[in-house]
Each structure stands twice: as structure tokens, then as C-alpha cells.
Give the backbone structure.
Amino acid sequence: MRLIDRIGTFFGRLKITAIISGAVVKNGRFLQQPILAATCECGTEGEYRYDSLMRGGTTSCGCYNMECIKERFYKHGHAGPPPTPIYKTWKNMLQHHGDNVCAYWKKDFVNFLNDIGDKPENTHLNRINRKLGYNKLNCEWRQNG
């Protein structure tokens, strides 16, 4: 397929819109790869090396990587910035009372959130029985004051 025939072709999220520069070949070797203009599905326009598009090294303007990072690190949206009050409560509980927190809550913030519910205004996390650790059956939100 000729390079000109690539216009309109998708490489991942990138649609080729124009050829910026052709290849420079000497003795059968590329000295310079063709540069193609493309528009990403998110609307961002950019210039990309043909070889990187062909081998799959470039498949978006970078938006896909950001989506993956957000999905991996921002599972629940409570970590911020800024962190939500319940997320701060969970972090403080782990920092100050880590040895007394049940393994299920230590493992994942979402486990804590699902068990205890969102933090109402003007409340703090309270252990019902001070001799027992932090877990679903021994914790409640208590009004401040």
C-alpha cells in the first residue's frame, strides 16, 4: 500500500489526515521516516512517525495512557486531589492504628467505604468497644462535640 493510500486509515485511535514529509531513503535504508498528521478520537491533532504507527508503538495522542493511569490509580475517585473526608479518615486510621485495623479494610479503601458508608458531616469514626480493633462490627460514625 502506498503512503498516500494511508490517509483516512486508523492506527488505534489516530486517523491519518495528511502526509507531512515523505521518507528519505539512501541505499535501501531509511534515513528519515515519513511523518504523518493525524487526529485522535479525543480531537487532539498531532504529527507522528510512520514506523511508530505501523508497529503499534503509537496508537493515540497520549489520552489512552492517561485513561489507563486514571483507571489504575483512581479506582474510586476519593483519593483526590483533594481527598474526600472519608478517604482522609481511612488514611489517618491506617497511619495511627494500623495494627488494630482489620486486614479487609487495610487491603482496600473501597472495602472500608462499602462497610462503613460515606462520612456524614460533623462526625468522626468511633470504635464502639475500645478494647476491640477497627472493623465493620465495631465502628460507627459519631457526631462531633
